[in-house]
Amino acid sequence: MISNIRFPFRFFLITFIWSWLIWAPLVLGSLKIIPVSDKILSALTLPVIMLGVFGPLAGALFSLHQEQGKGSSGKYLRRFLDLQLGWKAYIIPIIIFGGSTFLTWFLPELFGEKRLSMLLPSIWMFIPYLLLMIILGGGQEEFGWRGYALPLLEKKFGIWLANMILGIIWACWHIPLWFITGTSQTYMNFGGFILLMVGYSFILSWILKISGNRPFSVLYVHGLFNAFIPLMPPLILQKNVPQPRFWIWATMTLFIGIVITVLREKKSII
């Protein structure tokens, strides 16, 4: 740990301002604080949420410009064009998240839960959907979270505390989505969601490391675990019903993240 490394307050401030301001009309419309028809609200929800998800990128670029001046943004973004991650960074996440998502989806059936149908129109849509998730469906968050903030936090606090801090902040950044009609968050327990985000943060930190610190790796992995969700759904899309798959998903992800981090500390894995 290096105590004189600054905490990225400015990054987090811009990230939250960007996203929460953009999402605010959806929140106000969903809560009927401002008059918006359900039809218009439904049409606007996806594009507005996607625009808000660029908050971490906005935070990173603003912070870099303030710190390093003109030209820093282009140099930073070019780092994400390096796709030579190595086979481990491409294949291991498929095994981890494909396996954990499958177990999350399947295990409750052994105890009498009804099978949840795939939400994609066809299995052949998985690859196009994965590409969409990398570019617009969550992967773009990593321009900020792991591309900019995580290296600073890990230098300041070490692997354990840095990823717990980032995971909790990452979860809190999503809070407006609990108040927007139709989002998946409205079916999730927020405490469980924090466990999920901390677990993901531990895993993403490791994947970034084994890729040789190539930041495209975390865009890819974030897109990957989001793409598995409609393939093997971990949520019943109804409110006020038990969500056993969600709790398996959250606890399993956290457990995997903790095990990976323990092994990293013991130098048992890279």
How would you describe the overall organization of this protein?
The protein is mostly helical and 270 residues long. The chain has one domain. It is 65% helix and 0% strand. It has helices at residues 9-30, 38-52, 55-68, 72-78, 87-106, 126-135, 145-157, 159-173, 190-210, 216-231, 244-265. α5 (87-106) packs parallel to α10. The radius of gyration is 19 Å and the shape is globular.
Which key features would you list for this structure?
single chain; 270 residues; mainly alpha; 65% helix
Write the layout of secondary structure elements.
Layout: H1 9-30, H2 38-52, H3 55-68, H4 72-78, H5 87-106, H6 126-135, H7 145-157, H8 159-173, H9 190-210, H10 216-231, H11 244-265
How would you sum up this structure in a few lines?
The protein is mainly α and 270 residues long. The chain has helices at residues 9-30, 38-52, 55-68, 72-78, 87-106, 126-135, 145-157, 159-173, 190-210, 216-231, 244-265.
Question: DSSP strand (E) fraction?
Answer: under 5%
Number of DSSP helical runs = 11
H/E element sequence: HHHHHHHHHHH
Shape: globular
Unreliable spans are none
Q: N- to C-terminal separation?
A: 19 Å
**How many beta strands in the DSSP annotation?**
0
Helix fraction bin: 55-70%
What Rg, in angstroms, do the CA atoms define?
A: 19 Å
**Structural class determined from secondary elements:** mainly alpha
In this structure, how is the largest beta sheet organized? none
